[in-house]
Amino acid sequence: MSRVEKKIQTRLRILEAAGRSFRKGGFGGVGIDGLAKDAGVTSGAFYVHFDSKSAAFRESVRQGMHELKEGVLHFQSLHGAAWWPEFVKFYLGFKRTCDLSESCALQSLSPEIGRSDEDSRAVFEEGLRDVAEAILSGPRSQAAPRDLDAAFVALASLIGTVTLARAVGSNALSDQIAESTGRALLGGALAI
């Protein structure tokens, strides 16, 4: 493996570890030493790739939003005209119950971005628009958003539901919250 390839792999490892750490503990929940340790590198190696924790956060946001867009495109490709109900079920099911470090950046990082710098908010906004456009450009699907306003409402409903459902202590109430939103988004029954 060449030196350039090693450097690229190290940067990706740091970025993946940073994304998991920021989703799980927020921006303030981890320092550079913790980010470096989680990536299996020294703090000095971290600084070779990112000049600050804020720079790593911004790139984690960019990567997380890109992963969400790719997820939407994957569901469209895999499920065709049934992609939207399948995506909603997945988001309200698995993304609601998975470990927070593996959760969706849209849901887990939005509060952090709201307290972040202007550059991070700009990265998030660009990613959010890309996700909404991916939703709109997909195959026609039952109850899928048909315009930008509806796409933003759907995304806000999904992340709000996951946030609220994760916050309650009762699994039954968490399921009820998710199923209620699923029915509202899909116009009918939802089995998560």
Give an overview in words:
With 192 residues, this protein is mainly alpha-helical. The chain contains 9 helices and no strands. The longest helix is centred in the middle third of the chain and has 27 residues, at 53-79. The radius of gyration is 18 Å and the shape is globular. The mean pLDDT is 95.
Rg, Cα atoms, Å: 18 Å
User: Low-confidence parts, pLDDT < 50 over ≥5 residues?
Assistant: none
| Number of helical segments with 4 or more residues | 9
Number of strands: 0
Structural class: mainly alpha
* Run of helices and strands: HHHHHHHHH
Helix content: over 70%
User: So what's the overall shape?
Assistant: globular
How is the biggest beta sheet arranged?
none
Mean pLDDT: 95
List the SSEs and their pairings.
Blueprint: H1 3-25, H2 32-39, H3 43-49, H4 53-79, H5 83-97, H6 105-114, H7 118-137, H8 148-167, H9 171-186
Helix pairs in contact: 1-2, 1-4, 4-5, 4-6, 4-7, 5-8, 5-9, 6-7, 7-8, 8-9
